[in-house]
Amino acid sequence: MIRLQNLTLQRGPQRLLEGAELTIHPGQKVGLIGANGAGKSTLFALLRGELGPDAGDCLLPADWRIAHMQQEVATLDRLAVDYVLDGDQQLRRIQSELIAAEAAQDGTAVARLHIELDNADGYSAAARARKLLAGLGFSTEQMERRVGDFSGGWRMRLNLAQALMCPSELLLLDEPTNHLDLDAILWLEDWLKGYPGTLLLISHDRDFLDSVVDHVVHLEQCKLTLYRGGYSAFERTRAERLAQQQQAYEKQQTQRAHMESFIRRFKAQATKARQAQSRIKALERLEELAPAHVDSPFDFSFRDADKVSSPLLDLAEGHLGYAGKTVLQQVKLQLVPGARIGLLGPNGAGKSTLIKTLAGELQPLGGYLTRGENLVVGYFAQHQLDALDAAASPLLHLQRIAATEREQVLRDFLGGFDFRGNRCDEPVGNFSGGEKARLALALIAWGKPNLLLLDEPTNHLDLEMRLALTMALQDFAGAVLVVSHDRHLLKSTTDEFLLVSAGRVQPFAGDLDDYARWLVDYRAQQAAPAATAGGAPVADKRAQRQAAAALRQQLAPHKRQAEKLEKELGSLQEKLAALENRLGDAVLYEAARKGELRELLAEQATCKGREAELEEAWLEALEALERLQSELGSEA
Asked: What is the pLDDT of residues 305-360, one digit of tens each?
């Protein structure tokens, strides 16, 4: 297990942790949350052994293998699939030694290394690496490209795949969803649910945390507080705790005021001096309870537009794309005030192409795009962060678009985005990605838009800012069209979805759960063997009937296998539920029952590993069955 005892951690003059205590048991999946700069990433560095505690202890099992997502790319010349395979260092060692042994014609060493390679699942490693890359959105062609050919966001995906490839007992992931679209996030959720080791996860995506973690550690005021459940459970429990803390604080303040009043009145009177001195000592001993400061540092809204047109924008028979390449065809879309639309669709389907066209960054290749007379677009995309003037301050950025406004009004407005005091006057070049995103949103909000086009607006934003943005969008009177991997934002701010897929833009009738199921079917179709190219000779009827009969015979064992695996999986999940119920008993964690706890945790880890294997086998059996059924249907 991981145990932090009386831990103090300091970076320069800033104390991040002081007397912190935390115990994490094997197999637990824990979300680590806290304000930016609170010390989450520094705590990860401590667990990786890159720095030591300033006081106290950080204890981990000596034999644990630790995997983490690197923030930099070590090499640019490796092929993507090879770069991912490099994450399994033991595999690479065996392969290197095997090459040397074969070159030296050392038969004994070759035999021994082939056994090691088999034990390390080395023969399936390349297939597993490609499966990871596919889940994170890489095409077969991209897997064979150089790492240096990818943009920064795609390189982060490669680093994530490399971390997942590494066999480990402890997996540390710092903001893994920052550069992922919704498709890849849904895939990553499923992968992490099946991970058998201990997971520590830093994330600002509340739905992702709710889906993956079973505990939350909150880093606040130099302390670590462990909560059971996901992020939503953390919010409820913490709210109750803060309410109790506030009541205790108010009671203490009343007591303190009474003591101070007594001291002021009677300290100078000889007959009351002794009682006054007693009150002073009691006041000194009185524990300081901090008031519950839970207010967000963000408080902003999008300023109301001066004028509005209806419709704001009308696209008919649109053919959208780039020079020489059509991405979307026959697009029909009308945006009116009050519209709340979320764009869904697989990676590369054309969501950003649609938004760029509506924003005016791309011209339609065909069709009719009519803009309302009073249309004012507020467009947010990640590339706009790079377009900010690195030498200019937030105040200067705002003054450039509001030259006649008083400086104090602009400072007050920027304060709602947590740019206060000297921070208003600092060059943007020193800002983090989250601060640049906040400034870009502030400039949009000042411009009084009546149409917001938002392409992944929550990238780099922390939980508090995401909540503030969600509330501001709920109050916005204009139209909103948004692409986001943040499901909470989509669920809270949109009324309808459009699906961008196969070159079309069409209404999507379901919710985000339905979309997740749609994605499973879509991936299965993409993975299925390509249809025979046009122009091939048509098989005769007799051959077709024979092929169909053979396929029907193949269906039976797949059906039996799927049913068998489903039954075994159900029994195992019942066993896991019983184990987790026993592990929820607080008495079990007493010192006298240490042995029993260890056995239960080991059994739980074994069951979870088996559960992941069964789920994968069951899904593969179902996919094979569906493929065969599809082929039979096409034969009919």
From this structure: 888 888 899 999 989 988 778 889 999 999 999 888 999 988 888 898 999 999 99
Do 355 and 504 fall within a single domain? yes
Contact 539, 634 (CB under 8 A): no
Q: Is the dihedral of CA 626, 632, 634, 636 positive or negative?
A: negative
Residues 6+ apart with CB under 8 A from 160: 69, 136, 173, 176, 180, 188
Higher pLDDT, 587 or 4: 4
So what's the pLDDT on residue 238? 78
Q: Which domain holds residue 575?
A: 541-635
Q: For residue 131, give the 3-state DSSP assignment.
A: helix
Structure tokens at 215: 């505990």
Residues near 216 by Cβ (< 8 Å), separated by ≥ 6? 30, 31, 32, 33, 209, 226, 227, 229, 230, 231, 233, 234
Helix (H) or strand (E) holding 452: strand 451-455
Q: Are residues 116 and 97 in the same domain?
A: yes
Tell me the two tokens of residue 498. Answer: 């459009």
Asked if 470 contacts 491 with a C-beta cutoff of 8 angstroms, the reply is: no
Helices (H), 502-593: 512-527, 541-583
Question: Among all chains, which residue has been given the structure tokens 């649609």?
Answer: 354
Q: How many folded domains does the chain comprise?
A: 5
Q: Are 313 and 456 in contact (CB under 8 A)?
A: no
Tokens of 437: 């995103």
- Who contacts 470 (Cβ-Cβ below 8 Å, separation ≥6)? 488, 489, 492, 493
Give yes or no: residues 143 and 259 share one domain.
Answer: no
For 212-267, how does the pLDDT look when each residue is reduced to its tens digit (9 = 90+)?
A: 999 999 988 888 889 888 888 887 787 777 777 666 667 667 766 766 776 666 66
What percent of the chain is modeled with pLDDT above 70? Answer: 85
- Say whether both 280 and 318 belong to one domain: no
Closest by CA position to 209, among listed 196, 220, 197, 200: 200
Among 63, 57, 69, 89, residue whose Cα is nearest residue 169: 63
pLDDT of 530 reads 40
Q: How many Cβ atoms sit within 10 Å of the Cβ of residue 342?
A: 24
**For 214-316, where are the alpha helices, taking DSSP H only?**
231-266, 270-285
| CA dist., res. 302 & res. 473, Å (int) | 8
Q: Is the dihedral of CA 623, 628, 631, 636 positive or negative?
A: negative
Question: Measured between alpha carbons, how far is 187 from 485 in angstroms, rounded to an integer?
Answer: 12
Q: Report, as an integer, the average pLDDT of 91-120.
A: 86
Residue 449: band (very low, low, confident or very high) from pLDDT cuts 50, 70, 90: very high
